[in-house]
Design brief:
CATH topology of the largest domain in chain A: Immunoglobulin-like
Largest sheet of chain A: 6 strands, mixed
CATH architecture of the largest domain in chain A: Sandwich
Structural class of chain B: mainly alpha
Oligomer: heterodimer
Number of strands of chain B: 0
Helix content of chain B: 55-70%
Order of helices and strands of chain A: HEEEEEEEEEEE
Strand content of chain A: 35-45%
Distance between the termini of chain A: 66 Å
CATH class of the largest domain in chain A: Mainly Beta
Number of helices of chain A: 1
Number of helices of chain B: 18
CATH class of chain B: Mainly Alpha
Largest interface: A-B, 40 and 45 residues
Strand content of chain B: under 5%
Shape of chain A: elongated
């Protein structure tokens, strides 16, 4: 096959770019331990309010500068409505839904997951700057969808 | 490659010697693919206005923060039906209108393989669409968005008939789509003229073939999902109900296994249209014809392996997510290849910017914007920032309106002279194009920013705190300009249908077989079937002369065409009725509802397809 030199260069450039991206993907996943959220646990949605940790939604300190925030999403609101953490703390969000599918997006961060009844989602984020973040439901959930929000206040 | 329009006999008026029946009942009973195509186009345009008006109400509601122009419940019904209608009752049937009109003409056949089935598919689509929209009359329009995620659609959280209308309506429409797919695959594989090898077919016919395969494979998947959902709602099963051990994520998988190929069902016909138009107005054969064909087929295949990119926030885990990221990035390659092929076709060509060509170039520009934002959310980490924000709304309107609809409007201007024997008005056409471009971009470009600044989609209203007012106001203004552009289009069609400038048989000097017939073509298309020897049969002088000698003169005896029939419309009504009765949830009512279907099918089967004395 007769391939022009300039085309060969172009093809090799494209191929090596793909290779670099692929290696970067593996490195970030296994070398740097960056993971996308997966299913953490399952829970019976009928009994979620009696099941730990969802029997007591809210913020608790689990170590120095480390917090766990347990959230419940339901039509139409979040529980708790507001959490306050000091700047620089790492917050692990643990959340599920009690009825239909909801969304959980902490504005301005990469914390964004679906709240699926029966599944527990978990994601951590370090809030470095003081400020206020809106938590919104972005997964359409019925007539009160636009009313469904909560807040993270970083002091 | 000269303009051969002048050399060929003009319009059909000059040559017709057989007056066709054009009364009301002749349209109801017709099995002619060209008339069915016109009915598809008219119905799809009517639904386009119905869904467009809903979009205008939505935009008015979102113009200012904290507005309450309509209630949240009505808002939900409007955006649900806007999406459902635009996809299932506008973009798909409008593409099918083009399939119907053009495929038999482009491959040198007299009709599709199953003319009565074709009529049946049209009537089912029309009745299904009317049924779906009739939900507004009883105040119970679907309200759970066009994706209908479980468990929002479960009987517990969506009581009433709203979701039943949706799932039964889509089931009815699915029947029509599968029939269409079977019909076009059979037609294209079996009914090509001598010499019309697969690799000589016009690109539009090729993309029809790929789309038809997607239809017959993707529609059954949503059929399964809808039947599960129907059982959950009406008969107490728990397929999607976590409280009973079911899995709501199963719905998302089934919906998107259908939903992503559906995206390609919408876009591939438009790709086919512009692959036919760009060469004509560049006076050059399509650059890299086989590559464009293979790229279309590849898109059809890879389109099956990308569905979970709609579901990155579900939490499928890193392995599944990585796979779908990679597959989604890969599918951008054949699409990009096509874009470059069209650009290369135009490169160095002698370009002529008619309205049809303007829409093609417009498609290349805006579809590429939508393609780029698509590559952005193909990456799972980026997707997590954008999921279900207005950024996504901007993206898919850029690909569906800027891709599918722009392509079909290009086709409208290009093939209208063939259908009517008159041109669409070019001045109005240019107004249509520019108001579309301005209105469309003004509506959807600001949505990228609204989304990135945190505005979720499917939201009834938003707080002023979000600081997205200005983007919403721009979008609303744009939407109304876009609305005006659509009125210009319809005005142009109506005006030109009555008094447009007469068009010759091949007004654009195009290369394909459909232009070797008078404008409009005889109801039997070709008096004798021509023989094809190349990809651009009308661009080679000797081949063109041979073909025109076969296709243009009036035959001594008209070819035998199938009888018109009442049974397609009767059977379609029976099928729609039988599905509508499922809403009652009473098993014996549902069983009784099947009787008219069986009866109409029998009557159909015993009706002769051809006039008396002509076996087949």
């Amino acid at each position: 096959m007769n391939v022009k030199k300039v085309e060969m260069v172009f093809l090799s450039l494209c191929a090596s770019m793909l290779l670099v991206f692929l290696l970067a993907l593996f490195y970030s996943a296994y070398g740097m331990g960056m993971h996308l959220p997966g299913v953490e646990a399952t829970v019976d949605p009928r009994e979620v309010r009696q099941t730990a940790p969802f029997d007591e939604p809210g913020l608790r300190e689990v170590g120095e500068g480390q917090y766990e925030a347990v959230f419940l999403g339901f039509a139409w609101g979040f529980q708790p409505r507001e959490i306050t953490v000091p700047a620089g703390s790492e917050v692990t969000f643990i959340a599920t839904a009690t009825d239909v599918i909801h969304g959980f997006h902490v504005e301005g961060t990469r914390v964004n997951f679906m709240l699926i009844p029966g599944q527990v989602a978990r994601q951590s984020y370090t809030f470095r700057e003081p400020g206020e973040h809106l938590i919104i439901c972005h997964e359409f959930c019925g007539a009160g969808h636009h009313l469904m929000y909560a807040r993270v206040i970083v002091e | 490659m000269s303009t051969i329009g002048l050399e060929t006999p003009v319009g059909r008026e000059a040559t017709a010697h057989h007056e066709e029946d054009t009364g009301f009942w002749s349209w109801i009973t017709t099995v002619d693919h060209k008339r069915i195509a016109i009915m598809y186009f008219v119905a799809a345009t009517a639904f386009f206005f119905i869904a467009g008006l809903k979009a205008l109400v939505i935009r008015a509601q979102l113009m200012f923060p904290e507005q309450t122009l309509i209630t949240p419940e009505l808002y939900n019904q409007f955006f649900t039906m806007h999406g459902t209608t635009m996809i299932f009752l506008v973009a798909m049937p409008m593409a099918v209108a083009f399939f119907n009109y053009l495929v038999p003409l482009q491959i040198g056949a007299r009709d599709v393989a199953f003319p009565r089935l074709n009529a049946l598919a049209f009537w089912i689509f029309l009745f299904g669409g009317i049924y779906l929209n009739s939900s507004f009359l009883v105040g119970a329009a679907p309200h759970a968005s066009w994706v209908g995620y479980a468990t929002l659609t479960s009987p517990e959280f969506s009581p009433g008939q709203n979701t039943n209308f949706w799932l039964i309506g889509l089931s009815i429409l699915g029947i029509a789509s599968i029939m269409g797919g079977v019909n076009f695959i059979t037609t294209i594989i079996n009914m090509r003229a001598p010499g019309m090898k697969l690799m000589r077919m016009p690109l539009f016919t090729w993309m029809t073939l790929v789309t038809s395969f997607l239809l017959i494979t993707a529609i059954p998947v949503i059929g399964v999902a809808l039947i599960y959902l129907g059982f959950d709602r009406l008969f107490g099963t728990v397929f999607f109900q976590p409280a009973g051990g079911g899995d709501p994520v199963l719905w998302q998988h089934l919906f998107w296994i259908f939903g992503h190929p559906e995206v390609y069902i919408l876009i591939l016909p438009a790709f086919g249209v512009i692959s036919d138009i760009i060469p004509t107005f560049s006076k050059k054969p399509l650059f890299g014809y086989p590559i464009v064909v293979y790229a279309g087929i590849l898109i059809g295949f890879i389109g099956w392996g990308v569905w979970s990119h709609h579901m990155f926030t579900v939490g499928l885990g890193p392995i599944a997510d990585s796979f779908f990221v990679a597959a989604t990035m890969i599918i951008a390659i054949p699409t990009g290849v096509k874009i470059f092929n069209w650009l290369a076709t135009m490169w160095g060509g002698s370009l002529k910017f008619t309205t049809a060509m303007l829409f093609c170039v417009g498609l290349l520009a805006v579809f590429t914007v939508g393609g780029l934002s698509g590559i952005m959310h193909a990456s799972a980490p980026v997707n997590l920032q954008q999921h279900d924000s207005y950024f996504v709304v901007a993206h898919f309107h850029y690909v569906i309106v800027g891709g599918a609809m722009m392509g079909l409007w290009a086709g409208l201007y290009y093939w209208f002279p063939k259908v009517r024997g008159r041109f669409l008005d070019e001045t109005l056409g240019k107004w249509h194009f520019w108001t579309t471009m301005i209105g469309f971009n003004l509506t959807f470009f600001p949505m990228h920013f609204a989304g990135l600044f945190g505005m979720p989609r499917r939201i009834f209203t938003y707080s002023a705190e979000l600081n997205v007012d200005i983007y919403n106001q721009l979008s609303t203004v744009g939407a109304f300009i876009f609305g005006i552009s659509s009125v210009i289009m319809v005005w142009n069609i109506v005006k030109s249908w009555r008094s447009g400038e007469p068009a010759p048989a091949n007004p654009w000097g195009a290369p394909h077989l459909e232009w070797a017939t008078p404008s409009p073509p005889h109801h039997y298309n070709f008096p004798r079937i021509p023989t094809v020897r190349s990809r651009e049969p009308l661009w080679h002088k000797q081949e063109r002369d041979e073909i025109l000698a076969v296709t243009m003169p009036d035959p001594e005896e008209e070819p035998l065409m199938p009888n018109p029939s009442y049974w397609p419309i009767v059977l379609a009504a029976a099928i729609t009725l039988s599905w509508a009765l499922v809403m009652t949830g009473i098993w014996w009512v549902i069983a009784l509802g099947i009787l008219p279907v069986i009866l109409a099918t029998f009557m159909w089967a015993f009706e002769p397809a051809f006039p008396e004395g002509h076996g087949h």
